[in-house]
Amino acid sequence: MARYIARRAFHAVVLIFVTITVTFFVVHIAPGDPALRYVGPGTDAAAIERVRQNLGLDASLIEQYARWLWSFARGDFGESLVSGRPVSEVLARTIPRTLQLTLLAFIVQLLVGGAVGMFAAARRGGKGDQLASLTALLLYAIPTFYLAYLLISVFALRLGWLPTSGIATPGGVADGAWTLILDRVQHLVLPTAVLGLGSAAALARYTRGSMIDSLATDPIRTARAKGLSEAHVLWRHALRDALPPLLTIIGLSVPFLLGGAVVVEKVFAWPGMGSLAVDAIFERDYPVVVAVTFVASVIVVLGNFLADVATMFADPRTKIATDTAIHDGAGG
Predict the structure, then answer these.
(1) DSSP secondary structure letters along 47-89
(2) Whole-number Å distance between alpha carbons of 150 and 155
(3) Cα-atom radius of gyration of the chain, to the nearest Å?
(4) In a domain, 63, yes or no
(5) How far is it, in rounded angstroms, from Cα 146 to Cα 148?
(6) Mapping DSSP to helix (H, G, I), strand (E, B) and coil, where does residue 299 land?
(7) Is residue 51 predicted with pLDDT exceeding 80?
(8) DSSP string, 229-296
(9) Which are the contacts of 225, defined by CB distance < 8 A and separation ≥ 6?
C-alpha cells in the first residue's frame, strides 16, 4: 500500500512537471508579443526591444525556461506581465473563489447524480427510470454555456429571484453579516447549479449502470431471499458493491469540473481562476498562464490520486491486485 502510494505520488510529480513545461513552451511560441501592450502604434523597433528587455523576453526561449524553472523551484511564480504584481498574489485572490465554486458543484454532483442514478436503477424499466434517464441525458447533452444562459433568462431576468452575474452586489448591501452571507449565496446559486448539474447528469448515468450490475449479482439475490427490505438491500449491499467504479468516475470528474468552471466563470463574471486564465491567455501574460496551469494540474492529479486510494479502501480486491502488480513489477 505504501509503495503504491509512493509510486503514484512520484508519477503525479512527473506528470505535473511535464504539463507545466509543455504549457511554458506552447504559450511562448504562440503568436503575439506582450511587449506590444506597452507601446503605441508606430513605435520604433529599438523602443520595443527595450520593453522586451525590461520584461525579460529578449533572451532565448531555453534561457527564459531555465530562469523560470529556477524561480519556480524556489516557489516564485514571477510577476504578471500585465499588472506587474506577483503572480502568487494574484492567485491568492482567485483560487479560493474557484475552489468555493467547484467544491459546491462537486457536492451537487454527488447528491443529485447519485440520488438520480440510484432512483433510476431501483425502478429499472419503469416510468421513473425513463424520466430520470431522459432528464440526465438532456442535462448531459446541453452545452454548459447554453444551460447557463437558460437559467439566467428564467431565474434572473424573468423571475428576478437571483442575480445575473458577479460575486457580490455592486456597491454592497445593507450592513450585517447575515445579509452579506445571503448576498454571496444568491450569487453562488446559478453558477453552482450550472456547473454541478452537468456533472451530476454524467454521474447519474454511471451510477444507474453500476447499480443495475450490482443488483443482478448473487449476493443481492441472497439478501433479498433473506427478507431484507429493498431500501436495506439498495443502500447497504448494492451501493457498496457499486461504489469502487463510481469512485473512479468521481475522480475523473475533477478535470471536467475545472474545465467547466472556465466557461461558467466567464458567463457569470465570477472572478476566479478560470476567468484569470482566459484573460491571461488573450493578454499573453505568460507567468500567469503557467501558474494557473500548475495549480489546475495539482488539483486534477490530487483528485484522481485520492479517488484511487479511496477505491482501494472501498474494494479490498483492488488492493490485492495492486500489491500483486507492484510485486510482479519489482520482481521483473
Answers:
(1) HHHHHHHHHT-SS-HHHHHHHHHHHHHTT---B-TTT-SBHHH
(2) 9
(3) 25
(4) no
(5) 5
(6) helix
(7) no
(8) -HHHIIIIIIHHHHHHHHHHHHHHHHHHHHHHHHHHHHHTT--SHHHHHHHHHHTT-HHHHHHHHHHH
(9) none
Cell digits of residue 174: 445593507
By the 8 A CB rule, do 49 and 38 touch? no
Q: Which amino acid is at 322?
A: T
Residue closest to 200 by CA, chosen among 155, 250, 128: 250
DSSP code of residue 41? T
- C-alpha cell of 138? 438532456
Percent of the chain beyond pLDDT 90? 4
Q: What is the DSSP string of 87-132?
A: HHHHHHHHHHHHHHHHHHHHHHIIIIIHHHHHHHHHTTTSHHHHHH
With a threshold of 0.85, does the pTM exceed it? no
Range of 1-5, 9-13, 158-162, 163-167 with top mean pLDDT: 158-162
Residue 64 in any domain: the answer is: no
Considering its fold, how many domains does the chain have in total? 1
* φ, ψ (nearest 5 deg) of residue 86: -60, 140
What are the pLDDT digits (tens) for 116-151? Answer: 888 888 888 888 888 888 888 888 888 888 889 999
Whether residue 72 lies inside any domain: the answer is no
Domain that holds residue 155: 93-331
Question: Domain of 254: which CATH number?
Answer: 1.10.3720.10
Distances (CA, A) of 11 to 120, 178, 265, 325: 38, 45, 31, 16
Does 261 reside within a domain?
A: yes
Residue 39: the pLDDT is: 66
Distance CA 119, CA 244 (A): 19
Q: What is the pLDDT of residue 314?
A: 62
Is residue 273 a contact partner of residue 295, using CB atoms and an 8 Å limit? yes
For the CA atoms of 143, 146, 148, 152, what is the dihedral angle to 10 degrees? -160
Q: In this structure, what C-alpha cell is assigned to residue 261? A: 468552471
Q: Among candidates 54, 53, 56, 58, which has minimal Cα distance to 70?
A: 56
